[in-house]
What does this fold into?
Amino acid sequence: MYRPTIGLEVHAELSTRTKMFCNSANDSNEMRPNTNVCPICMAHPGTLPIINQEAVRHILRIGTAVGGTLADFSEFDRKSYFYPDIPKGYQISQYHYPLVSGGSLAGIALTRVHLEEDTARSIHSKGKSLIDFNRAGVPLMELVTEPVMSDAETAGRFARELQLLLRTLGASGANLEKGEMRLEANISVSKEEGTFGTKVEIKNLNSFRSVERAIAYETERQKALLEKGGKVVQETRGWDEEKQETFHQRFKEGSADYRFFPEPDLPKLFLSDIPEFSREALHASLPELPGERRARYAALGLKTEDVIFITAQLERGTFFDAVVRELDDAKEAVMLAANYFISDIAGEPGKATPASFANLIRLVASQTLSSRGAKDVLLLLVEQGGDPETIARKHNLIQIHDAGALGTVIDTVLAVETKAVAEYQAGKQAALQYLVGKAMKESKGAGNPLELRRIIAEKLG
It folds into this structure.
């Protein structure tokens, strides 16, 4: 039986004001081609790069968050290769001395996290190739995992967790659709545990679904090839989304082909000489990390699946966390809020604010609103915004506790639902809940269900 071995390489554009080695704007929303460029990122003769300190700090904060070893000494290298999207004919990257070594995320061991510059963007259309240099020189994180994954689902979970971490840290928007985060998978299969097969790299996967499907396909392709007596060759392959299959692009280069050597135009980095790069300062700068937030929600009594749903997206978790603060971390109220947040609006608050959402929960907890009425108010709150109590009063959804008013509603229901009345009097308890439901409907969701149940039972003896 063949066993797959999978490792990921992830590139993410960092959220900085300027590019990695010059003052050109770093703006992924700029749609006009070749606008954010200058002589440095266009590699004009005689220009010299300057290191973006903000980009270095982003990488060190990422390394701190994943528990990696932060370098005391680091340097940049020239990675030589010739392609139209590399103006200099080489990329400034890191090889022997990355900023971060080791660490782990989502249970997956990491090899390194280093810093480099992005390439330009090639556009191929109608037999022509155009190049937009806006992206050239943008600070780019490269994170490499150890080859320790054995299935596509694990790789997909890791990639999602990394995206969430980058967004939580404010290090990157990590938007795959915009190319801010790009994924590559290294896959090999072997019959012997602890032995690697021939590695194949799949480049530029631009969605989590593509990562999972490409890995699954490539694993089966290599297994089938070996079963037939064929040989897997080391190569770079692409992913055809339409055909749902990988395809050959080129034979894989080795590190020797890139002719790495230290970048002569940049100084060496002695990071311990910079106070804000100390381990203590970096750790103090970190927000609450996704794993810490999950643990806190679990301690408040939320179910595991609810915790996973709420924290899966940064915006969703940020909104709910603000609701939790409004409710002063009260367990019962938080659990009630999670139920409405997930079940009724699927984590999409729309025009509701954390304060208005928390007020809605207080109205339910105080029995001012019934569960049915709260659902109606919540939908209006998401669509229109506003104050939940004002909305409830406008639509006559404030819960009725008055026995006289409820008795009138019940008399109307009992006069119509004679069959259910007879069933209840014959001992069928389910009929009582049916009658309560009908009374709730008759009161347009405003009746207190406990009072309705008590009065119906009393009236029917």
